[in-house]
Specification:
- The complex is a heterodimer of chains A (105) and B (506).
- In chain A, helix 1 crosses helix 3 (36-48), helix 1 crosses helix 5 (77-89) and helix 2 (25-32) crosses helix 3.
- The termini of chain A are far apart.
- Chain A is built from 6 helices and 2 strands.
- Chain A has 105 residues and is mostly helical.
- Chain A has one domain (9-95): Winged helix-like DNA-binding domain superfamily/Winged helix DNA-binding domain (Arc Repressor Mutant, subunit A, Orthogonal Bundle), CATH 1.10.10.10.
- Chain A is globular.
- By secondary structure, chain B is of the alpha+beta class.
- Chain B is 42% helix and 21% strand.
- Chain B contains 14 helices and 16 strands.
- Chain B has helices at residues 2-21, 26-46, 55-82, 91-112, 114-120, 149-157, 195-199, 223-230, 273-277, 323-327, 329-348, 365-394, 402-429, 492-495; strands at residues 131-136, 147-148, 163-179, 182-192, 204-205, 218-222, 240-243, 246-254, 267-271, 284-291, 303-309, 315-322, 440-445, 457-461, 467-472, 483-486.
- In chain B, strands 1, 2, 3, 4, 5, 6, 7, 8, 9, 10, 11 and 12 form a 12-stranded mixed β-sheet that branches. In chain B, strands 13-14-15-16 form a 4-stranded antiparallel β-sheet, with no helix packed on it.
- In chain B, strand 11 (303-309) and strand 12 (315-322) form a beta hairpin.
- The two termini of chain B are 71 Å apart.
- In chain B, 30% of the residues are buried.
- Classes of the chains: A mainly alpha (105), B alpha+beta (506).
- At the A-B interface, helix 2 and helix 3 of A face helix 2 and helix 3 of B.
Chain lengths: 105, 506
């Protein structure tokens, strides 16, 4: 027994998406094809389990671009470890969401 | 037009998100709404519908906004599943709640039954322990009038050492003329004028300012009769009506439930002394005497006998019953029958609760205390049930005579109490001493033919894994009562599996 949480495929997919650089909810929805009612609560659960963490963009940056500030998500160390374990369990994860399309925050 | 339409769409989307946010717990609502709003802006941007109406884009944004409801529902489901499972009430708690419910129901029924409510209330009379209802010996409690008017007049006129005053009443059915063409039959107690003064019952005067004629009898009616026959009319005060063949003035009203003396009475005709003297000598009624306050009378109990010489060769034997004893009669009956039931209990069931290994590590002092406290709580809850239920049964019918009510109360109180005590002990014996849960899964063990070689009987188990109860089929010298066998920790593995019943539940 490893002690790492075993993730469902959906949660692993979201974790892979965040790791791949899709760092806010809507982009995760777009890349995974999961609906809103799945992605946001799942991200809350991942955040509660400390696999990802979130932070709000600075208001000044959003104001400069005349848009509302966004909430960004990032994998934690535990999240990275868990994702590694999940990739072994779900080998197609990396093929579904390759880690090349990294967006800068 | 277009900016207006865009604003309308945005307002609609914002309203949708705000409504969805109402489903989010208050502490997280702002955060969620902020994220949804930010994301919806980006959805719109991604669909290219920032400055112009694109129906496909608006649909995408609307889909995103309606998805917020799914987010909220999902979040609530998560929160609900994250809550610790609600602990079901333990078997012991449910048992006590059940008893408390029965006691409350019986208590509520007592409040609804007028006869029962009156029986459970204290005496409404002033100085009730000195007020004695005097009846002929052997006829006390029968409800029949036994004292002759002549005796009352004689005792009242003669200086007394024992009593300071007497009042007399004689219930008779009389015709009361409500109007020249309408009369009704009422049970009217022809009484001495001092009856209510002696009892200390306040009469509600219908018109306190009206000066009444002294020479006419005064009619006091129950509030029920006043409402039924006089329509609660204040104007009837002082009116003169015909009661039987004599005229009387309507004087006042008293609540019907304040009258606790023998005889069902709708009205009282308080006669002036001249009329009392005219009551036929042989007319029989009820006599109330007020004991002279004196230290010499302190030794008198609530009920005692006395003899009165009525002539050179004749003696009357009388019984004096305190009116306070009549009021506390129901409680005395209850106490008596409870004691009787406790005495009768060993004849109906065995008293021992079983053999328990006192030094066993599993039964801490707290658990032992909890077990005995549970038994005590059951006994404590049984008593009000017995009291209320027996009074309810005794006064179910309003037409029941007081004597019959007493008999019914005695039988009901004793029967219910004995049954309840028996049930309490049997219930306690069938519970685990550790968790107080009901023991289950009875299994037959042994054979009756091998009684002298091994025990045979029933084995029950605590689903919490605390132990086994062995109940012998035939008590023997080496196995006379049920025996509790504690299970040690090596058995825990059998009971730690999920879905086994929670300790303390049955």
């Amino acid at each position: 027994m490893t002690g790492e949480p075993r993730l469902s495929h959906t949660a692993a997919l979201i974790l892979q998406a965040v790791n791949a650089g899709y760092v806010y909810g809507f982009s995760v929805m777009e890349v995974t094809g999961l609906p809103s009612g799945t992605v946001y609560p799942a991200m809350r659960r991942l955040e509660r389990d400390e696999l990802i963490r979130s932070h709000w963009e600075q208001q000044s940056i959003a104001d400069a671009e005349q848009r509302p500030p966004r909430k960004y998500y990032k994998l934690t160390r535990v999240g990275n470890t868990t994702l590694e374990a999940s990739r072994k369990r779900y080998p197609l994860l990396t093929k579904l969401i390759p880690s090349t399309e990294v967006e800068s925050i | 037009m277009k900016p207006l339409a865009i604003r309308a769409f945005r307002a609609f989307n914002l309203a949708t998100l705000s409504v969805a946010a109402l489903l989010i717990p208050r502490g997280q609502r702002t955060e969620w709404l902020k994220e949804w709003r930010a994301e919806s802006w980006h959805v719109r941007q991604a669909c290219g519908a920032e400055d112009a109406i694109l129906w496909q884009a608006e649909r995408e944004v609307a889909d995103f906004c309606f998805g917020a409801f799914q987010d909220a529902v999902c979040l609530r489901r998560d929160l609900r599943s994250a809550l610790p499972p609600r602990q079901p009430l333990s078997s012991a708690a449910r048992c006590l709640l059940f008893l408390a419910g029965i006691a409350a129901a019986a208590g509520c029924l007592l409040m609804f039954l007028p006869g029962a409510r009156i029986a459970a209330q204290p005496s409404p009379y002033r100085d009730a322990h000195r007020l004695m209802l005097i009846t002929r010996s052997g006829l006390s409690g029968t409800g029949y009038p036994t004292i002759r008017a002549e005796q009352f007049r004689a005792w009242r006129e003669k200086k007394q050492k024992l009593f300071s005053d007497f009042a007399f009443y004689q219930p008779v059915i009389r015709s009361v003329a409500l109007s020249p063409h309408r009369s009704i039959e009422l049970s009217v107690a022809q009484s001495s004028g001092n009856l209510f003064d002696l009892l200390g019952l306040p009469i509600q005067l219908l018109n306190p300012d009206r000066i009444l004629k002294d020479d006419l009898p005064k009619l006091v009616i129950t509030d029920e009769a006043w409402q039924k026959y006089f329509g609660k009319g204040q104007k009837v005060s002082g009116a003169t009506i015909l009661v039987g063949n004599s005229r009387a003035e309507i004087f006042g009203v008293i609540p019907a439930d304040q009258w606790r003396l023998p005889g069902r009475v709708d009205a009282w005709l308080l006669e002036p002394d001249a009329n009392v003297a005219a009551i036929p000598a042989e007319a029989r009624g009820f006599l109330v005497g007020h004991l002279e306050p004196s230290p010499a009378h302190n030794h008198l109990s609530d009920r005692w006998e006395m003899s009165v010489a009525v002539g050179p060769d004749d003696t009357d034997y009388l019984t004096c019953n305190s009116l306070s004893s009549r009021a506390s009669g129901t409680f005395n009956i209850f106490l008596f029958t409870v004691i009787l039931a406790f005495l009768a209990l060993p004849a109906t069931t065995s008293l021992p609760l079983g053999e328990y290994a006192a030094a066993h590590h599993k039964l801490s002092r707290d658990k032992q205390f909890r077990r005995w406290a549970f038994l005590a709580a059951k006994f404590a809850l049984i008593l009000p049930i017995v009291y209320f239920a027996s009074i309810d049964l005794a006064h179910l019918s309003a037409s029941m005579s007081p004597e019959n009510s007493d008999y019914i109360q005695i039988v009901a109180s004793f029967s219910i109490c004995l049954f309840a005590l028996r049930w309490t002990l049997r219930d306690q014996r069938k519970r685990c001493p550790v968790c107080l849960g009901k023991l289950t899964n009875p299994a037959r063990v042994g054979q009756p033919s091998r009684t002298f070689l091994a025990w045979n009987g029933t084995e029950l188990i605590c689903v919490g894994g605390h132990g086994l109860l062995h109940v012998p089929e035939m008590p023997t010298s080496w196995f006379s009562t049920q025996r509790w066998l504690y299970l040690d920790s090596s058995w825990d593995v059998l009971f730690s599996e999920a879905n086994l019943a929670t300790p303390g539940t049955s």
